[in-house]
Amino acid sequence: MPIISRKILALGTAPLALAVSGCMGAGGSVPSASTPITQSEAQQGAEYHPQFLQEFGGAMTGPQADYVQQIGKNIAVHSGLGNARDSFTVSLLNSPVNNAFAIPGGYIYSTRQLVSLMNNEAELAGVLGHEVGHVAARHSQRRQQAAQRNSILGVLGAIGSSILLGDSSLGNTLSRGFMQGSQLRTLKFSRKQELEADDLGILYLQRAGYDPKAMSTVLASLAAQNSLDARLQGRNDATVPEWASTHPDPAGRVQTALAKTQGLAGGVTNRDTFMSRIDGMVYGDDPEQGVVEGSQFIHPELMLSFTAPQGFYMVNGTRAVSVNGQSGKAQLTLAPYAGDLDSYVRQQFTKLGGEDSNLAPSNIQRTTVNGIRAAYGTARVNNGNSQVDVVVFAYEFANDRAYHFQAITPAGKSNAFSSMFQSMRRITQREASAVIPRRVDIVTVQRGDTISSLARRMAYDSSQVERFRVLNALGSNDTLRAGQKVKLVVRGR
């Protein structure tokens, strides 16, 4: 029986969201000046930028992306960096997770999902300003120097910064092979660095004439979304398990960020402008990357579908989808296929174990699942004082195309995923055509409209009122007024 490698330990992974260093701390001092971006930093960022985009669904284009870029460059001007507007590259990422990032050289990013959760331009400026602050303070470089990695993914993980992820103890993985769709691991920023970036973001809001309280309001929305996600996924708390974290709970940061702005002059929020600019933005999963609907995952382009076991929840990403529960973790992804399922399965075990591991299945069994040729293997490995089972279950969809689940469970409990393994199937063209994306629809509240009446128009079968309130930052006692602009999530091409 092989000894489990450090890469396999505990599957501590954020399967489908960038698990990069956290942001939005509290307190701290603000650097008085910033050194212009150097040529070396610009070259480093330019090298990593296209690979970063690939990990997050690519950069969006069009009016919405242009708007995010404009706000990001405008806020960067207030950083004190020379030629800040020209030195920064601002990208809107086609990702369904709530996050924002930065890498050296003036590259900052926000996902469309995070933008759709915001409710005014000041919040957008605050989030992007926080990332500019990390660039200006050279936080990524300091973390990179503290822990160099041998691969580009490791380097990217060390230099990336995230506005939401306050914990990066997510690095214990089933190797980078398990993490093909994980969109990078990371190191945790120091508390001092988070405090500095938070202070800088608020400072930039002030300088730009925005309401500095926007930093606390966007955090409040994130906290509410996190709590709602926990309830919808059947979890008992409002924090995402470390091995599946896409955005740790920011609730504890809300009051701290608000306290920083006490006594500061107010400013503009540009709410109506922001609302009109994000109208029509894709919300949630992009069908081109597959969609999660309850316990079902369906990919209209790859023409496949499967169902997660009861009690598990899924997180979708650009190149993989994860399935998470208290009794195990799994991920569906793909790898190069040369027509031999047995070899394919063995290759995945080798990747999972790492180059120095002898991880291999005890045997490989052939089967057929809903008319699809399949093969699977299991390996039992030591995990500290306990044992776990690692399973690879592969399906041949064509002579040159295969997909596979990678799963880990306590020893003897791999049957937790049996129903999922057996649920894999091809979908019909009719099913594929029926997958329609959700989009943000900005509407003006009319006389007689209520939260309940508008929430019924949300494109969900459950928790419509709760989703509507979180999306629009409405508390339990808040009401609507005629003429107010609010967000709905509707179906639309």
Automatic annotation (TrEMBL):
Residues 441-488 form the LysM domain. Transmembrane segments: none annotated. Keywords: Hydrolase, Metal-binding, Metalloprotease, Protease, Signal, Zinc. The keyword Cell division does not apply. GO terms for molecular function: metal ion binding; metalloendopeptidase activity. Gene3D superfamilies: LysM domain, Metalloproteases ('zincins'), catalytic domain. One of its GO terms (cellular component) is membrane. Residues 1-19 form the signal peptide. This is LysM peptidoglycan-binding domain-containing protein. InterPro entries: LysM, LysM_dom_sf, Mito/Outer_Membr_Metalloprot, Peptidase_M48. One of its GO terms (biological process) is proteolysis involved in protein catabolic process. Its cofactor is Zn(2+).
